[in-house]
Amino acid sequence: MREYLLCLAAAAAATYLLTPLARVLAIRFGAMAQVRDRDVHKSTTPRWGGLAMFGGLCVAVMVAAHLPLMSTIFNDRKQITALALGALIILALGLADDRWALDAPTKLVGQVLAASVMAMQGVTFVWLPINGTYILDPSLSVLVTVFVVLVSINAVNMVDGLDGLAASIVGVGAAAFFAYSYFLSVANGYQRAALATLVSAALVGVCAGFLPHNWYRARIFMGDTGSMLIGLMLAASSIMVTGQVDPGGVSGGALLPVFLPVLLPFSVLAVPLLDLILAVLRRTRSGRSPFAPDKLHLHHRLLALGHGQERAVLIMTTFTAVIAFGAVSTAFIPLWITVLAIAIAAVCLGMWVKHPPADAASIGALQEISG
């Protein structure tokens, strides 16, 4: 555990220290987020925070490479190469998009390329829990992997609409996934889960290091460079565990439900996925492109109810924590206890959403009108 925490701290420190440099570069090269009708921020803000986040991930991996107890992670150089290539493609795509605002088809092609490169290098689903364990053939394995990566990238990208929101949600989700993958890699000796454990720990650190610069009022945005990168890494860590570890073979199988490997990635991304699904349905029903922007995302609705930006971020992050850690808890405690706890938490969160601060009602009304 100490080694993973050290990598987490290294990622956080590196990201925190590199973010001001990324801000300077964004201003120097014109990677700026202008204020648009659908935006919540009120002034032009530098992007390219994802550049610092990429640096934090690299530092975490370099630190891990020098820790003797983590040496086994680097035995499978193929998967590490796959992650590196996928991340570099997404980084280049994000930097270009944040600077020149690429069109949706171009971004989609770049995302497919990054996902395909990872899949061809071995970061793939190899089985699904259909009628027991269904082994995927190579072609279907790549297709399923690419689809999951695309959904993860665009879900995180779409939810990145408030200061600190994407970093908070992904950080909490990665923490939940870290708990699960650590349980597999250390408590059960599954070496295949070790790299996923490192990636999820590094993601927690990267998000924690970026948040002080990105919290309301943000001095820099992660941009598509950051949102696509952490979406890719979150998907990769999920695939490396949930798609490759057979829960039936884990000792103490009663503690590890068969459905958990499929449930966990969706629970970690529950809020972004819900936002993505609602957006696609809303836009297609109105005859618009699924990629057409609007001001009806979940965070916009919370603002319209009268919740401020910080409070809206806390609400959505708490929802993520309840669902993600609730899913993970099924590996350790009886299912009925988890369901009961989630139900109680959901009621409390529902009351929180429906009762914004009394002095915020007028703010919400003004935001609704301005939207």
Sum this structure up briefly.
The chain has 371 residues and is an all-alpha fold. Helices cover 70% and strands 2% of the residues.
Helix and strand topology:
Layout: H1 2-29, E1 32-33, E2 45-46, H2 49-65, H3 77-100, H4 104-120, E3 127-128, E4 134-135, H5 138-159, H6 165-187, H7 192-214, H8 223-242, H9 260-268, H10 270-285, H11 298-305, H12 309-329, H13 335-354, H14 361-370
Keywords, separated by commas or semicolons:
371 residues; two-stranded antiparallel sheet; 14 helices; 70% helix; single chain; mainly alpha
What would you note in describing this structure?
This protein is mostly helical and 371 residues long. Helix content is 70%, strand content 2%. It has 14 helices and four strands. It has one domain (2-370).
Mean pLDDT metric: 85
Number of helical stretches of at least 4 residues: 14
> Level of helix content?
55-70%
Biggest sheet overview: 2 strands, antiparallel
Structural class: mainly alpha
Element order, helices and strands? HEEHHHEEHHHHHHHHHH
Count of extended strands: 4
N-C termini distance:
47 Å
Cα radius of gyration in angstroms: 20 Å
Adjacency order of strands in the biggest sheet: 1-2
What shape does the CA trace take?
globular
Number of domains: 1
The portion of residues forming beta strands comes to under 5%
Low-confidence stretches: 250-256, 360-371
